[in-house]
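Note to self: the last two entries modelled the partners one at a time, which told us nothing about the interface. This time every component goes in together.
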Amino acid sequence: MALLEVNDLQVSFSTPDGVLKAVRGLSFSVDEGKTLGIVGESGSGKSVATQTIMGLTQGARISGEALFEGHDLLQMSTHQLQHIRGAQVGMIFQDPLSSLHPYYRVGWQLIEMIRAHDKSVGKHKARDRAVELLRLVGIPQPDRRVDDFPHQFSGGMRQRAMIAMAMALNPKLVIADEPTTALDVTVQAQVLAVMKRLQEEFGTAIIMITHDLGVIADVADDVVVMYAGKAMETGDRSTIFYRHHNPYTEGLLLSLPAYGDDRERLHPISGQPPSLITLPAGCPFRPRCPYAFDKCVEEPPLFDIGRAGDHQSACWLPTDMRKREKVRRDTLGKAAEVVAVDTSEV
Amino acid sequence: MVRFLIRRVLLGIFVLWVVSMAVFYLFFGLNKSGPNAVASRICGKQCTTQQINAVKTRLHLNAPLPKQYWYFLFGYPGKDDPNGLPRNHGILHGDLGYSYVNQQSVNTTIKQSFPITLSLAVGSAVLWLAMGLASGILSAIRPRSLLDRTFTFLALFFYSMPTFVLGVLLLLLLFYQLTVHGVSWFPAGGYVNLTDNPAEWARHMLLPWFTLAAVTSAAYTRLTRGSMLDVLGEDYIRTARAKGLTERRVVFRHGLRAALTPIVTQFGIDLGTLLGGAIITEQVFNLPGLGFQAVRAITSNDLPIIIGVVVIATTAIVLANLVIDILYAVLDPRVRLH
Ligand SMILES: Nc1ncnc2c1ncn2[C@@H]1O[C@H](COP(=O)(O)OP(=O)(O)OP(=O)(O)O)[C@@H](O)[C@H]1O
Ligand code: SF4
Ligand SMILES: [Mg+2]
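The predicted structure of the combined assembly is written out below.
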């Protein structure tokens, strides 16, 4: 049984401009001790999806289920959820400065976490544990730094402190929402290394949310590629990198500096993600997809690719690469015709 | 910290100096008739010019402005005369002088009125913070709820109500109408010493407290609501919830703690306004506090009382602001005092 199994999660907000569908039928599962990477452009619903699971989105319409060890988190009362948050599922957020309370000492915030779930731990013991945790995540002189305020820490140290907090009660799952985005590259690598080390030590499962495929390549066992509130492609890491099927995944990979054909130029996906309020009919990626063809006016479901059942893609393209190239050439040909017609008219 | 304190004390002395100079200038420099008015008032309607001049000499009212200020600082020249008028020893000796009108010691007058104004100010500040914070927090926890709308309406209602109108209205409704119908919960005004009878003290102060607190507390309802709503949307509040803390702890220990800082800042600014409102409230409820004395002294050109009240009020505001600034640094660890 998977540690966390999310089925057909839907989350929508009512905004002044209309209903915003942030997550539209997302399913994924995380196994014990494994890392699931969720990758996608900004606004694809990664944060909303994971925060909804933990009951942290307010004023949203939610449906679906999120089974944590078989119990549906979405049906739990706030009180029940409070026992799971922190103790069973730790969370790490993008900006460590704004995620730590500016008016409380780092140690105080760690101690609060420890004692919130186990009142029997004495203040002194909790403090010792806090120092130990800071040492564990690699903060120098932890017995002194434990009394610092967050603004006295560097960016990397703050994120280490957040990790220490998320890991404090040895949770089964840690949800890390872009934990390295706000950090510079060398610090990013250090922070990821700390997380990996703790995962090996304690057998924690991790959901790693990122828009950086480099991070995915570094840590993920399985990957969900998200676009416009749904999964475009899921598979294990090597499938996503070397045998991907979905044009959106391909677009993300081509925009990686070291992956595209020439290393100098980046190939960002052209165009913008669609509005989640007035979502166009058909495949949400269609306006930006270089392969888009007739069939794409209908929204593709998540197809199984191959027979193993561990690779899915929401795309109408044939799985055979040669047939696929033909579709692309046909599409490009048509696009060229359209351009030709346009110029002749001017 | 020590340097901060020294700087602030020096600044406070400077403010006192400027303010007292200004009052002296207004009295002796601009208003040439000030001394004459005082003298003829003391002397009575039938006085001859000669008699008036005698009074002016007795009260040293003929001396030019700089000399007057010198007297204020160091006292009048000459020796104490056990049978004659008491002699002002100057503020630098802790003596604020004697009323022109009734020769009463200004120190004594202030000693009597200060506790009254302090009772009024502290009581209404507590009341205004309590009402403002409580309603603001409740509004912010459930924005756009019925409770929130009710508080918003009440806040607007009291905010647009001048202090004296509210005071008179309360007297009319809660004193006059109730008493007419045989219920005397509230007195018409006046003051009872806290040390004499605490219950009576509170009974006499209740309406004045509310009158003075209502307008400001309305502003604090809105301020607290806004500040809390801002804070509750912060990332660290999400972190607090993600830690599995109870909602109560999230709102109070994490939310209110951070929302308090702008409220304290505003509180420091509003302390000055509080004294302004106290003058009006003391008039309406017939409380012989500092404001009451000041109004009486101004109408009778009684400079020593005016300057005494100004000095005490200014000192109180300077000190209160100092406390607020220290409190601010205690509240926000990122703030360094300098
Ligand atoms: N409380 C809310 N009310 C209305 N819309 C919201 C709310 N929270 C999020 N959204 C919208 O939901 C969509 C998904 O947002 P989400 O934060 O999940 O994106 P993301 O994939 O995490 O992006 P990023 O990489 O920028 O963090 C966005 O369009 C966002 O504007
Ligand atoms: S379904 Fe069509 S538009 Fe969508 S990704 Fe596949 S080819 Fe592109
Ligand atoms: Mg996000």
